[in-house]
Each structure stands twice: as C-alpha cells, then as structure tokens.
Amino acid sequence: MKTEEVGNALLETWSVDEVAEAFDRNEIVLIDVRTPQEYMFEHIEGALLMPMAFFKPEKLPGQGEKRIVFHCGSGVRSERVARAAIASGMARVAHMEGGFGGWKGSHKPYIGTNMATGAPTPIS
C-alpha cells in the first residue's frame, strides 16, 4: 500500500491483491466509480456503484466498521473521487491502483456479459 498525505488526511493506494484479500475477508466496501454502462458490462461481484459523475461524498457510509476503497477502469477516476472525498472532510481514503483493468489483468473473478445472450456471467 502506498500512502500520501493530503493536508490533514491520508490517501491510500491499494494494490489489486490487497483489495482482493480485504474484500474476501469482508473488511472493505468496494465502490465502483465507473459509468452505469461500464458496470453493467462487467464488474467486480459485490462492488457498489457510485459513478464519478454523480459522486456525493456526504452520502458515503462511515468507515467505522469497514474501510471504503474506490475503483474505476484504470485508477485515474478513483483517485479523483478519493481526493474529492478527502476535500469533503474524510480523513482516510483509499483507491485501487490499476482499477478494473488491473483486476482483470491479475485474473481475479468478476461478472462479465455473455455476448450471445446478454446475460451476466461469472468470469474467473
């Protein structure tokens, strides 16, 4: 995990493996900030959707029990959202390095779309 101090807050950049392990242990809430179309085509099963275009940091749950980790397609949008969350007053925010592309590149399971039927399909 990489960390960066942003004012009085801490911005964490987690690797795909760190996110996958914490997600499997139910220690984090994973929030996908991609568009609804991107999410519908393929997404990490169990990740919540809060598109960057509609991001409202005041609507986020607290981080008392579970940490919040943002992700997008490549890590660029999730870092922007994480910085916006810090600007809104959150003191410790994380995002996934490499985004969904890194997740797929690491051969982690996700939900894709069967192009023949349009149905959601588990990919491992």
UniProtKB/TrEMBL annotation:
Top-level lineage group: Bacteria
Keywords: Transferase
Domain (Rhodanese) ranges: 24-112
Coiled coil spans: none
A Pfam family of this chain: Rhodanese
A GO molecular-function annotation: thiosulfate-cyanide sulfurtransferase activity
CDD domains per record: RHOD
The protein's name in its UniProt record: Rhodanese-related sulfurtransferase
Native source species: Alloyangia pacifica
